[in-house]
User: Fold this.
Amino acid sequence: MKNINIAIDGPAGAGKSTIAKMVSKKLGYIYVDTGALYRTIALYITENNIPDDKIEEALPGADVSLRFIDGTQRVFLGDRDVSGLIRTPEISMAASHTSAIPAVRAYLFGTQQKIAAENNVIMDGRDIGTVVLPNADVKIFLTASAEERANRRYKELAEKPDCPSYQEILDDIIKRDYQDMHRETAPLKQAEDAVLVDTTHLDLEGSADAIIRVITDKIGSAE
Assistant:
């Protein structure tokens, strides 16, 4: 039987990863966080001070992998679990830049497709439905207003002593959106056959339920 592939694309801060994890758990699919792969490459490049013109030849030394430990996806750089290190604002911006480099996308492309070919997956990113899994069984474009995405991020960081202001977070999201939508390689855009899901006025549970409704409408129940 053919494995089922669900592609979820959308802008930064839309809650793709959190919602996709919830949906994958409810449906019994493997969740693949492609953004984590790109963030790990960005971490590798940043830690090693690799200039853009040297990135392609340096990529084979990155040794990026996803491992599923006790049902949770962890990201490794070599033998080091970097799942926490890749979530800083610095690495977020670096990932937006490095993910636009064709050599980086080509390096990770095969990894993503191999996982999808071997498993029932929910894969999220910026170009899953348009580039990585163009034949996905279900494609969803998950979004929310820039203001709501900034508000969610601010609440998430509010307890930290170095929390940026709401305006700084909003400005960063708007800048990230522009970068992602205007890059030459695989820009962020909604696939023609993707279903738009706007979560501006939904909480996490409501967002996950909306995604599940789209999936069951397309392919039936997971049973």
The chain has a mean pLDDT of 90. Strands lie at 5-9, 30-33, 64-69, 72-77, 80-81, 121-125, 138-143, 195-198. The chain has one domain: 5-215.
